[in-house]
């Protein structure tokens, strides 16, 4: 059948019929065309061939299509889902959309909205996405959508701005289906390349991070933790001591069974990490990382209930430790040391840098020492400023930034002191930092910081001959103290360790775990591989015995009687989780299992 477009002004019909010119088609012929492009019809291969032919014919006549007279036709076109069609039919439909978008002041927004709608499969395909849509077809569809949007953006200067607005309005919501979320974000991030990425890339990443954070804060610790414990101390990090990833996966699957937000977040983290990996492979990771830093500072840094979203920064740094890894450590340290930000931001930053240097396996020992020196120097300056004041009080609130920094220094050294001692030049730098002067200052950080961290630090510092003191036994079994609660404030920043072990199964296995330092794998200064005490960390010129003389803490004379297990560093109020593997045998020393971030104070 041969169709002709009407050349004179047609009479107008409703949306279900449409208008025709007396000298053009009659209504019957036009209705046949509408049926040929009906978006609700499911087609076999022959029908799709006919549809492709029809769409190509329409592409040659886009200048004749008028929104006033061909509403039903346009509605059918704009509601089509390319997911149902073969490659040839998809090409024909997308070519028509590209041509329609170029019609001056007519269909740009509708065309872009149609393409964005196709970021996700239609409802009937969502529930059986893995069975009905192969990975190859899915990636092919994304590629076609990306190419179409790029061509429209190159042709219509206004397109990127309109596309940005449409994507903002179309972003998945918290309660959307996981397949829809993951599909939309995966396709959307594919736009973050070349010219289009330069124009809207920042907005795309910001929306993704917002979605990750929203899902994250909706996962409560009640969803994660299971066993009840009178003191809320984790006996172990949730980790696989035998290195068996499959078993770890099984445990986390049980842990998050039925937690919809966790499953969605896990899927999205996989997509974002794959995107960052692709950026690294194509040489554009630094650009992406710089955008993420800005987004992180604005939208994540002070979100203390975030447990997983921040790991996109961790993974990005692991892809380029020498540039991005170092940059992130300096970025956090700059926020802490400079006074432009408020106290909460600065405390958050030093908590981040402490957790990051402790957990990032890819960060070199010399970087750790360099950052520690900046933290210690800041603390020394703070103490010197206080000496000039007429009155000096141990006020946890007034000096909360100082206490947060002292705690970060001790926490990092719990993880990294042994490895630092293996390098004579770095060892020398640490001994020259005068850490003793800030810890023995009248502000008494050893009494204010978390007892669990203080205990482990002092034990390792003594074995390394860096610092020698014992602690009040009354503090040993305490998760926290009234003083630590005071400096932590309402957000409990005394217990904010944002890079604690990562509990999302799939993204952990593929991206986080290979780069993450678990406490059970850390070599301490007081034990060799067989668990014997070490005595070979002598510091040249160091008079170790003199360190005890003026130390103003309630000391116990018998240090060796103190049973140190770093599960005491593991803090989550009123909750604990026991890893099944940890309960099956003698696992030896277990350290900060988890010092829980994102914990709101008990009501």
Plain-language structure description:
The chain has 603 residues and is mainly α. 43% of the residues are buried. The N terminus and C terminus are likely disordered. The termini are far apart. Helix 2 runs parallel beside helix 4 and helix 5 packs across helix 9. The longest helix has 24 residues. It is elongated and about 95 Å long. It contains 27 helices and no strands. It holds the Pfam family RRN3. Belongs to the RRN3 family. This is RNA polymerase I-specific transcription initiation factor RRN3.
Can I get a quick summary?
The chain is mostly helical and 603 residues long.
Q: Keywords for this structure?
A:
27 helices; elongated; single chain; mainly alpha; 603 residues; RNA polymerase I-specific transcription initiation factor RRN3
Number of helices: 27
What radius of gyration results from the CA coordinates?
31 Å
Look at the structure and give the mean pLDDT: 78
What is the share of helical residues? Answer: 40-55%
Order of helices and strands: HHHHHHHHHHHHHHHHHHHHHHHHHHH
SS class: mainly alpha
Low-confidence stretches: 1-23, 226-258, 529-537, 539-603
What's the count of strands?
0
* Spatial gap, N to C terminus: 75 Å
Largest sheet: none
Strand content: under 5%
The shape is elongated
Q: Topology, pairings included?
A:
Layout: H1 27-36, H2 45-59, H3 71-78, H4 87-101, H5 108-117, H6 123-126, H7 129-132, H8 135-155, H9 159-170, H10 178-189, H11 194-217, H12 221-224, H13 245-255, H14 260-281, H15 285-299, H16 311-319, H17 321-337, H18 343-359, H19 365-387, H20 400-421, H21 424-431, H22 435-439, H23 445-448, H24 451-463, H25 473-476, H26 482-488, H27 505-512
Pfam family, one: RRN3
Organism: Urochloa decumbens
Family: Belongs to the RRN3 family.
């Amino acid at each position: 059948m041969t169709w002709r477009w009407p050349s004179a002004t047609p009479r107008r019909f409703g949306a279900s019929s449409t208008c025709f010119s007396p000298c053009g088609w009659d209504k019957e012929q036009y209705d046949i065309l509408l049926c040929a492009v009906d978006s609700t019809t499911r087609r076999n291969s022959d029908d799709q061939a006919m549809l492709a032919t029809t769409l190509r014919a329409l592409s040659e006549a886009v200048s004749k299509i008028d929104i006033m007279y061909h509403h039903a036709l346009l509605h059918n076109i704009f509601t089509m889902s390319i997911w149902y069609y073969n490659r040839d039919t998809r090409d024909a439909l997308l070519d028509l959309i590209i041509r329609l978008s170029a019609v001056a002041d007519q269909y740009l927004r509708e065309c872009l909205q149609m393409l964005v709608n196709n970021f996700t499969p239609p409802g009937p395909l969502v529930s059986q996405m893995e069975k009905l849509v192969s990975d190859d077809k899915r990636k092919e569809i994304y590629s076609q959508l990306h190419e179409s949007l790029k061509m429209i953006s190159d042709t219509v200067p206004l397109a990127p701005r309109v596309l940005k607005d449409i994507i903002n309005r179309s972003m998945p919501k918290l309660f959307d289906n996981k397949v829809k979320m993951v599909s939309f974000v995966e396709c959307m991030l594919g736009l973050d390349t070349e010219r289009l990425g330069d124009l809207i890339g920042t907005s795309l990443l910001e929306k993704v991070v917002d979605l990750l954070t929203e899902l994250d804060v909706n996962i409560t610790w009640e969803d994660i933790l299971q066993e009840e414990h009178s003191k809320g101390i984790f006996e172990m990090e949730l980790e696989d001591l035998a290195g068996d990833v499959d078993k770890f996966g099984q445990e986390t699957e049980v842990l998050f069974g039925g937690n919809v937000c966790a499953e969605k977040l896990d899927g999205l983290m996989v997509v974002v990490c794959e995107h960052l990996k692709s950026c690294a492979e194509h040489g554009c990771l630094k650009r992406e990382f710089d955008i993420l830093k800005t987004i992180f500072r604005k939208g994540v840094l002070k979100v203390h209930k975030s447990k997983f979203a921040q790991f996109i920064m961790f993974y990005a740094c692991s892809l380029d430790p020498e540039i991005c890894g170092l940059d992130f450590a300096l970025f956090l340290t700059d926020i802490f040391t400079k006074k432009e930000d408020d106290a909460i931001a600065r405390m958050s930053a030093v908590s981040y840098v402490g957790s990051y240097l402790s957990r990032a396996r890819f960060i070199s020992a010399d970087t750790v020492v360099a950052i520690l020196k900046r933290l210690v120097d800041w603390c020394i300056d703070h103490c010197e400023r206080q000496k000039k004041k007429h009155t000096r009080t141990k006020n946890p609130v007034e000096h909360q930034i100082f206490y947060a920094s002292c705690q970060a220094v001790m926490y990092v050294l719990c993880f990294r002191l042994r490895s630092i001692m293996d390098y004579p030049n770095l060892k020398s730098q640490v001994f020259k930092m005068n850490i003793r002067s800030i810890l023995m200052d009248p502000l008494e950080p050893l009494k204010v910081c978390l007892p669990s961290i203080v205990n482990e630090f002092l034990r390792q510092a003594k074995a390394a001959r860096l610092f020698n003191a014992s602690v009040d036994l009354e503090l040993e079994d305490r998760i926290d103290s009234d003083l630590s609660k005071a400096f932590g404030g309402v957000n409990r920043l005394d217990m904010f360790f944002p890079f604690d072990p990562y509990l999302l199964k799939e993204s952990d296995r593929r991206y986080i775990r290979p780069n993450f330092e678990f406490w059970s794998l850390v070599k301490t200064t007081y034990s060799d591989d067989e668990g014997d005490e070490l005595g070979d960390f002598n510091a040249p010129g160091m008079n170790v015995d003199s360190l005890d003389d003026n130390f103003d803490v309630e000391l116990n004379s018998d240090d060796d009687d103190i049973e140190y297990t770093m599960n005491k560093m593991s803090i989550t109020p009123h909750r604990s989780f026991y890893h099944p593997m940890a309960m099956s045998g003698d696992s030896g020393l277990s350290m900060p299992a988890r010092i829980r971030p994102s914990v709101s104070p008990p009501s």
